[in-house]
DNA sequence: TATTGACAATATATGCGTATATGGTCAATT
DNA sequence: AATTGACCATATACGCATATATTGTCAATA
């Protein structure tokens, strides 16, 4: 049954896209299955061929967004074109992880709740995504340390500790950012100085 | 009239102390003037000799806490005993500004709302305090730059830009901190590396 | 003169019935 | 096999009335 279809199912994806616009515009509560179905151009009943219920749509949407952000972040950390140094790669990962989401949050009324770690429906997904991102960062820091790109020992930091400070510090830079450009500027400044301190 | 008494008025202060315990324990809405009066050992009516109304108590409480934190932060930035370098002084300021408040937030159910910048009652005070703290940081950074303790130009940063990144980055370190000790550790790591990058 | 009990106006909580909206299911249809 | 209209149970929105709680004021008091 479609329920088990692979992620690339175009119809299932169309539903998620419609759900995203509705949820981010009106929030979970104020969005009805009818709204999602209409936006996706299908009947309400057929939504249940692809998802178990409304909450599952929300969770799958949240999971899908986080997966995309994580994949982009991982790609940034692995990037080789232009031979970016560790600071550039981490900056790219932070942009992938934070700047993208920030855009949704600042430009849609209820975009925030999709990424809210206190949200009953997807809080666990947000936390898991956050933990995985930190692990990616830690791994990249460890590799850079081995490659002598940075000197963790000299700074008295373990790779996980450095990753934690980078992730949380970068997260704080979102506060009060009027637009994505501002956030990117802050991220660049933060990363530049921080990695200069890890030489 | 007492209404205009100076801040040191012990009775007025006792009311603020009681209000703090009640507000941080039950929140503004669920705290009644009766609760505050009882906790302060006075009649409800006499509260109105010291404050115009319930909202004013809340605002004065918020303002008082922020003033204290700012005063402590400023003292840390001016500290001379032990000849602390700029990194140590900033670390002290961040602890004064964030770690103190964090303790209240983590240990009381509704402590957060007193520092919530989205709070209708005190949001303006929180933002103002935040701006003043950033100004203090910027001033200290500027002074350290002139004294050649740090090299802002080399990092491509203005003093306000550096202060912004420090304040917001440090603020992010609060996330998910189970206790104040954890936050302090993160702050120390952050400040150490960041200022090493400003050499 | 600082403090307070008592008072009036307002705000909040609760219950109830009804109308509407929504979620989830399933047999019928294409 | 995918899709859907129709169905039912539940949830939410609304109006309204009543009871209780709370706020802010003021004249009386100690």
Using brief descriptors, characterize the structure shown.
71% helix, Tetracycline Repressor, domain 2, DNA-binding, 199 residues, 2 domains, homodimer, mainly alpha, Arc Repressor Mutant, subunit A, elongated
Write a structural description.
With 199 residues, chain A is mostly helical. Chain A has two domains: 52 residues, Homeodomain-like (Arc Repressor Mutant, subunit A); 136 residues, Tetracycline Repressor, domain 2 (Orthogonal Bundle), CATH 1.10.357. In chain A, 71% of the residues lie in helices and 0% in strands. Chain A is elongated, with a radius of gyration of 19 Å. The structure holds a DNA duplex (30 and 30 nucleotides).
The percent of residues in helical segments of chain A reads: over 70%
CATH topology of the largest domain in chain A: Tetracycline Repressor, domain 2
Give the biggest sheet of chain A. none
- Domain count of chain A: the total is 2
Mean pLDDT of chain A: 94
Through-space gap between termini of chain A: 55 Å
Give a concise summary.
The structure is a homodimer of 199-residue chains. Chain A has 199 residues and is an all-alpha fold.
């Amino acid at each position: 049954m479609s329920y088990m279809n692979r992620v690339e199912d175009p119809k299932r994806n169309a539903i998620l896209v419609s759900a995203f616009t509705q949820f981010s515009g009106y929030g979970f509560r104020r969005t009805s299955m009818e709204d999602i179905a209409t936006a996706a151009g299908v009947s309400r009943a057929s939504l249940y061929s692809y998802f178990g219920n409304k909450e599952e749509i929300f969770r799958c949407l949240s999971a899908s967004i986080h997966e995309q952000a994580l994949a982009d972040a991982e790609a940034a950390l692995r990037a080789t074109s232009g031979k970016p140094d560790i600071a550039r790669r981490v900056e790219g990962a932070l942009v992938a992880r934070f700047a993208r989401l920030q855009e949704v949050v600042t430009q849609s009324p209820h975009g925030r709740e999709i990424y809210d770690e206190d949200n009953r429906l997807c809080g666990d997904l947000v936390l898991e995504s956050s933990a995985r991102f930190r692990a990616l960062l830690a791994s990249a820091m460890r590799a850079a340390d081995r490659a002598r790109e940075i000197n963790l020992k000299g700074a008295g930091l373990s790779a996980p500790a450095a990753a934690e400070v980078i992730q949380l510090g970068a997260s704080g830079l979102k506060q009060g950012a009027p637009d994505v450009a501002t956030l990117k500027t802050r991220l660049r400044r933060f990363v530049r100085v921080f990695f200069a301190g890890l030489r």
